[in-house]
Amino acid sequence: MIFLYDLPEYLRPWKLATLLLGITLLIVGSFVTPAPDWDIPISLIMAALAYLTAPWSLRVILERRWRLWPAMLFATWFTVDGCYALYWYFVDPYALALMRDVNFPASLSLYGMCGVVWLYRGSLSELLAEVRGLFAKAGSR
């Protein structure tokens, strides 16, 4: 399983902290934004799925792992639109019909950003050391 292989990455404190921050922002947004399709359960569902799939999906694209593209496209679609449509189909079909077309681009953008944020494999201190090293190399040219 792809996700079991990356289990240590999912348990990194900096990644869990950013997930918690994102979930907090989604929950706050559900209260302050008057959108009929923004509630806490779908925020939790979509955030959890993005946490599990977004970095893997981006890695499949960046590493040109063509054989995995069908699975990547399905994971991306299901996280961005499939789970949303399934949830709102049962909770409030009117909200689904009203908001689905505007939810997709927003969710896809957030999914891509999550993939970028969580792509790095390593601790936060390792990431910062690598970034410092890159700047040091660029400054010495």
Model description:
The protein is an all-alpha fold and 141 residues long. The protein has one domain (11-139). It has 7 helices and no strands. The chain has helices spanning 2-5, 7-10, 13-32, 40-62, 69-91, 93-118, 124-139. The mean pLDDT is 94.
Summarize this, please?
With 141 residues, this protein is an all-alpha fold.
In terms of per-residue confidence, which ranges show pLDDT below 50 for 5 or more consecutive residues?
none
Element order: H for helix, E for strand: HHHHHHH
Distance between the termini: 43 Å
Mean pLDDT: 94
What is the helix tally?
7
Main sheet summary: none
Shape: globular
Keywords:
single chain, 141 residues, mainly alpha, 7 helices, 82% helix, globular
Strands, helices and their partners?
Elements lengths: L1 H4 L1 H4 L2 H20 L7 H23 L6 H23 L1 H26 L5 H16 L2
Helix pairs in contact: 3-4, 4-5, 4-6, 5-6
